[in-house]
């Protein structure tokens, strides 16, 4: 008898009745021997969508695969966790580095490139707030990395102009101007772009892993899994866009 996954087959998609009827109840779209697996497709509701809404894919059919049925092919729960982790990291970066008023914590995660590798600034130095207008970075623990730290702060995109004074780096806090706010929005967009690149890598890895099962799995099942992965990617991307919109509104308020 063929392996259980070889028995996977997709039943016809659910059709939606007239707009005045209640949508049909979910039915199993995947069958596995005597086991029923739910891959639900949300019925489309007839609406008057604008061209703009259609362009964004509004009203597309969504799938929800029972992950236990395809765990021998790919662990979709792990893929979802990886994508959520990318979104969470973006939010943390927003909170740490994008503030109207620069504080010592904003410098913590600045990456410093040294001959021994890349390190967060707070692992190489002690960062303190000397006054409301001045931050001080003490490089006495790693004096050889002072120049690299100055360069990293300059290139952080936070509109900072550090000044080296021996083993101390003085970082004047920029005035809260419209230009400063717009610079922070630019940094937010750059962070979001990098996060989307990380998300695409997760998606590509998941799709490639799924395709490895083509020799033992039906094409319909492969397509359904790929659709689920794409749907998860789009959901994570939409969440990133929400975070960016909220942060932009906060910075420009």
Automatic annotation (TrEMBL):
Its main location: mitochondrion. The keyword Mitochondrion applies. SUPFAM superfamilies: Ribosome recycling factor, RRF (SSF55194). GO terms for cellular component: mitochondrion. It is found in: Mitochondrion. It holds the Pfam family RRF. It comes from the Eukaryota. The keyword Metal-binding does not apply. One of its GO terms (molecular function) is ribosomal large subunit binding. InterPro entries: Ribosome_recyc_fac (IPR002661), Ribosome_recyc_fac_dom (IPR023584), RRF_sf (IPR036191). This is Ribosome-recycling factor, mitochondrial. It comes from Crotalus adamanteus.
